[in-house]
Amino acid sequence: MKHPSLSLATEAAHALPGQSRYGALAATLRHRVVAGEWPPGTALPAEQLLAAEHGVALGTLRRALELLAEQGLIERVHGKGTFVRQGIAGASMLRFFRFGDSAGQVPDSRILSRQTVPASATVARALGLAPGEPVLRLQRLRLIDAQPCLLEDLCLPLDLFAPLVDGDPADWDALLYPMYARRCGVHVQRAIDDIGFGLLSAPQAQPLGLAAGHPAAVVTRLAYDLSGRCVEWRCTRGDAHAFHYTVTLT
Amino acid sequence: MKHPSLSLATEAAHALPGQSRYGALAATLRHRVVAGEWPPGTALPAEQLLAAEHGVALGTLRRALELLAEQGLIERVHGKGTFVRQGIAGASMLRFFRFGDSAGQVPDSRILSRQTVPASATVARALGLAPGEPVLRLQRLRLIDAQPCLLEDLCLPLDLFAPLVDGDPADWDALLYPMYARRCGVHVQRAIDDIGFGLLSAPQAQPLGLAAGHPAAVVTRLAYDLSGRCVEWRCTRGDAHAFHYTVTLT
Question: How much is the average pLDDT of B221-240?
Fold first, then answer.
């Protein structure tokens, strides 16, 4: 599947004046991945073949591949070759929280609402839309052992996620990213989580079984696809007392 | 300066049965750094010299240096050589908080109390002491533009930090780690910060100018010196609403 806006973005990167040869080659290879020539999980052709095909030295090709690996598009598996990354599998919110004995569990998912709504200014800016353009908005509750633990607000651009507008969300998977890939051809490759704190409003507190005004950890996520386009805005709230995260400084 | 306990620790590492040759060499080199032979910030001798001195192949020496670089003890500067790392400079707590327009500012420091107290079970375990052994306990307030922003509890092992037991803390630097290095010969090389949340007790809230029960981000830090010994336990509290932290997932 080829998205016109994505092709434009990568063509533009390809044409940057003053760009190095390996940088231009990396943009071209990214373009081929985004266009679906090598789907996520598949191996790229041998380095010698790719270098010959693009008329560059092997060293130039290798620098381009290093750049794409740094950017998270591909991964080089020692002795096996170079693969297009599968993307983020999901369940990653749980690295910020500890709910009882839940380590390693995938939380259940319950879609509380699904609407097509005009994008707020914040969401429009994140998704690269004009304010007021329609987005698919989901409210989702995540549960562990039938106990509500996280409340999520998601906004998705309609042009990519049309297959999710109809049908029964009760049939959806507990993990969204593999479902985005299967149903919509969208592969989430990178996410930036911004952690902050807030107090729950009454409508936010109720599904979580907490009192209005209860302190919450608030994780605002921007998720990006293969082409670097922001494809998901997500705001996740959970009991602040269940929040834990470890950072090493050297 | 040579600390007997550190030497023992590194000798033990050196003698591990089944250890690889480069692993044993890395332990020996770490021992020489800890003993003060190459102070932080100085360059190690040339690789050929070091390899000859230890009677190993250049490849073995390089693997040992790679291991020490991964562990954060040294850094290899392309074209310049291999240096003992200076350690963490300080001011790092502010990467978790945003107080107004404070980016890049070093907060002022006010020591509220300094006592020699028996270590709690938690602190003793962190610092490798027996519960009840005495530690130097500091309570410190950090201020930006004269506004209190962070309250810190610190516990330090007395054998390393004796020079801080006497003298006027008003003369201390705003950044502790450079002062630990200068006054006590302790170089903090690595810190692990565990972020959680809590509500401020009345004695915690008062110096911060907040109400008892106010939500707080609580950062519990274990800081390690060159030898890998935990030399500081620290618990920092600040207004949860000022907490922000960004994490990228790929």
Answer: 94
Cβ density class B160-178: b for 16+ within 10 Å, e for less:
bbeebeeeeeeebeebbbb
B195-227 per-position pLDDT tens digit: 999 999 999 999 999 999 999 999 999 999 988
Q: What would you report as the CA-atom Rg of chain A, rounded to the nearest whole angstrom?
A: 20
**Statement: B92-242 belongs to CATH 3.40.1410.10:** yes
> Closest partner residue to A247 among B193, B199, B217, by Cβ?
B193
Note whether ipTM > 0.85 here: no
Nearest CA in chain A to B214: A215
- Integer angstrom CA distances of residue A5 from A2, A228, B136: 9, 11, 61
Gap from B145 CA to chain A (nearest CA, Å): 23
> Which residue of chain A has the CA closest to B240?
A197
Q: Tell me the shortest Cα–Cα distance from A98 to chain B, in angstroms.
A: 10
Residue A8 burial (C-beta neighbours within 10 Å; 0-12, 13-18, 19+): exposed
> Dihedral (C-alpha) A23, A24, A25, A28: value to the nearest 10 degrees?
120
pLDDT beyond 80 at A206: yes
pLDDT tens-digit profile of A58-116? 999 999 999 888 877 898 888 888 999 887 876 688 889 988 776 667 889 999 999 99
Instruction: Please indicate if any CB of chain B lies within 8 Å of the CB of A133.
Output: no
**Percent of chain B at pLDDT above 90?**
61
How many CB atoms are closer than 10 A to CB A180? Answer: 25
Fold held by B4-84:
Arc Repressor Mutant, subunit A (1.10.10)
**What is the C-alpha separation between A189 and A222, in angstroms, rounded?**
11
Nearest CA in chain A to B189: A250
- A211 vs B: CB within 8 A: no
> Taking 60 as the threshold, does the pLDDT of residue A193 lie above it?
yes
In chain B, what are the domain boundaries? 4-84, 92-242
What pLDDT score was predicted for residue B201?
Answer: 98
Task: Please state the separation of Cα A249 from the chain's center in Å.
Answer: 26
**Contact assignment for A196 to B243 by CB distance below 8 Å:** yes
Residues 6+ apart with CB under 8 A from B20: none
Pairing of strands A147-157, A188-199: unpaired
Q: Indicate the length of chain A as a whole number.
A: 250
Residue entry with tokens 């633990």:
A149
Of B193, B247, B249, the CB nearest to A249: B193
